Amino acid sequence: MASKDLLDLLNEAIARELQVAIQYMWQHVMWRGPKHFSVKDELKKIAIDEMKHAEMIAERLFYLGGTPTTKPSPITVGETLKEMLEIDAKEEEKAIELYKKIMSKALDEGDIVTARIFEDILKDEEEHHDTFTSLLEDYQ
């Protein structure tokens, strides 16, 4: 069975995924301006990806004997598109760091399945980070 430390990390990941799913969805709804149409659909798509990640992680956590959290980490929407994208890029950086830690912990415990789940999610998070940093290039 998984250690308490690994279960806690999985719950931290769920809270983070819930946070950004809500955050990106609200940004999708709230953003206005000339770049609205080019960015809003991407924010919506990424928000849906994040909700799917939360579900995958919750299913794994529950299988390992834990109880998935229902509380998101603190949500920060931002005021301008630049601010939103800066916040979002930082959130993806935090996710990448956390998910590498979870993969390492899972492998240390011999939990190859959890490590592989996070390897797949990590690919998505890196793509999201690339999207946000690429969109920020307009503001350099």
Q: Which structural class should the secondary elements be placed in?
A: mainly alpha
CATH superfamily: Ferritin, core subunit, four-helix bundle
Number of helical segments with 4 or more residues: 4
Provide the CATH top-level class: Mainly Alpha
How would you sum up the major sheet? none
Helices and strands, with pairings:
Elements lengths: L3 H27 L5 H28 L17 H28 L3 H25 L4
Helix pairs in contact: 1-2, 1-3, 2-4, 3-4
What does this entry show, briefly?
With 140 residues, the chain is mostly helical. Helix content is 77%, strand content 0%. The termini are far apart.
Describe the structure.
The chain is mainly alpha-helical and 140 residues long. The chain has one domain: Ferritin, core subunit, four-helix bundle (Ferritin, Up-down Bundle). It contains 4 helices and no strands. It has helices spanning 4-30, 36-63, 81-108, 112-136. The mean pLDDT is 94.
